[in-house]
Design brief:
The structure is a single chain. The protein is mainly α. It has a single domain, classed as MFS general substrate transporter like domains (Growth Hormone, Chain: A). It contains 16 helices and four strands. It has helices spanning 3-26, 29-36, 41-65, 71-94, 98-124, 130-154, 166-184, 201-204, 208-228, 231-238, 243-268, 273-293, 297-311, 315-323, 328-356, 361-392, and strands at residues 68-70, 158-159, 162-163, 194-196. Strands 1-4 form a two-stranded antiparallel sheet. The chain has a two-stranded antiparallel sheet with strand order 2-3. Helix 1 packs antiparallel against helix 7 and helix 6 crosses helix 14 (315-323). Residues 397-401 have low confidence and may be disordered.
Length: 401
């Protein structure tokens, strides 16, 4: 890499850190803000699902109608608009304009979806491999966890005669989002970002493995969101934790998961991919089954811990290996489709979570466990397809190579 590429990579990772921290400060607590406003939990699920679903639809439209695009310019525009929506949320909260806060929350969530969509293609134009993919995710996860950790200590505390509330966290979130915007605008536009996107979907999906991977990813998003789509509310309601204590529990799980994810990326990834899948998803299946059998507080907390603990690990094997099958010119189109499918899967999962929330833990995790089982079977089948492909053509070189 030349000096401009190295500088751009550093700036991308830095803006990811500030961006992740900004999201962590407020994202989890917005669920509780809605509950404080006497909105039914099923409707909270509907609001979160709407944001995810609309984000997926918008991404599909971007894929269909934008044939020539510079991702760096798009991400600068989206970041700028995101600040306006964050300010709108704060004003809605201050002046008790509930609809304004909800509308701006949905639009901000859509902005976050687009930022998540574009970031890895932006990196892949400079450097693309499975470890870079995992590194990008770990930076964002770690920063988000740090934001949640800080917010869990600040909420309800008194600072210079002011009690820190949800709006205080939102203002802090805006400050760090502005720092991310500053870093984004420092990224130098080079020829590598000027990609012509003229990829026909039928050509992209000639790869059977990629097509099945997208179905697997959709099921996986449903599986996760059906159980943990409203995880802060889940812990507050069923473990009787305070908001700050619940947020602290989530962030501790996430931080431990970040460390485990980093270690697995460096040293502990099994050579057997089947074993990798069973470690990640099999452990989640087992603890959800345990909650189904013994739906008590202690088992719930153990299940949430295990689920968050393994969620950060082995992404180079569960996702990166498939995403990197795409060449750079196909990366943006494929990422669009992947994220849109994922957001729609998340929306359906959160909807199911909202509908089963008041019925009890057995219903919440009973539905999720069905999707996890399908996810595991599909993941194992994908590995089999890859191994068969490598056996038949040992010299095969995918677009990513």
């Amino acid at each position: 890499m030349d000096s401009n590429d190295k500088k751009n990579i550093r700036l991308i990772f830095l803006y990811l850190a500030f961006y992740g921290f900004s999201i962590g400060l407020m994202s989890e607590f917005f669920q509780l803000w809605l509950k404080v406003q006497n909105i039914a939990i099923s409707n909270i699920g509907l609001i979160i699902a709407s944001a995810s679903f609309l984000g997926g639809i918008l991404i599909i439209l971007i894929t269909k109608y934008l044939r020539s695009i510079n991702e760096l310019i798009i991400i600068k525009i989206v970041f700028s608009i995101k600040i306006l929506f964050l300010v709108g949320m704060a004003l809605g909260y201050c002046y008790a304009i509930k609809w304004l806060s909800i509308f701006c929350y949905i639009m901000d969530s859509i902005s976050n979806n687009i930022i998540a969509l574009i970031t890895y293609p932006l990196i892949s134009y400079i450097l693309k491999n499975e470890k870079i993919y995992s590194k990008r995710k770990l930076i964002e996860y770690s920063a988000k966890d740090a934001g949640i950790l800080l917010s869990s200590f600040l909420i309800g505390k008194k600072f210079i005669c002011v009690i820190l509330d949800y709006n205080s966290l939102l203002i802090l979130s805006i400050i760090f989002a502005l720092c991310a915007v500053f870093l984004v605008f420092r990224i130098k536009n080079t020829e590598k970002f000027n990609q012509k996107q003229k990829v026909k979907l039928k050509n992209l999906f000639k790869d059977k493995i990629l097509l099945i991977y997208l179905i697997y990813f959709f099921i996986g998003q449903m599986a996760y969101s059906t159980a943990l789509g409203m995880q802060l509310l889940l812990i507050v309601n069923y473990a009787n934790f305070s908001a700050s204590k619940a947020a602290l529990f989530i962030v501790i799980c996430g931080i431990i998961g970040d460390v485990f994810g980093y270690i697995t990326l460096k040293k502990l990834t099994p050579k057997n991919d089947y074993l990798t899948i069973l470690i990640k998803f099999g452990s989640r299946f087992f603890v959800y089954l345990l909650i189904l059998i013994i739906p008590i507080k202690e088992v719930l907390l153990g299940g949430v811990f295990v689920s968050l603990f393994v969620s950060r690990a082995y992404e180079n094997k569960t996702d990166g290996v498939y995403i990197n099958r795409c060449s750079r010119d196909k990366m943006f189109t494929f990422s669009n489709i992947r994220y849109s499918i994922g957001y729609i899967g998340k929306a359906l999962g959160v909807l199911l979570c909202g509908f089963t929330f008041t019925l009890g833990l057995r219903y919440i995790f009973g539905v999720s466990i069905i999707f996890i089982l399908i996810q595991i079977l599909m993941a194992l089948y994908l590995i089999k397809l890859r191994k068969t492909e490598e056996f038949k053509s040992p010299e095969i070189r995918h677009d990513s190579q």
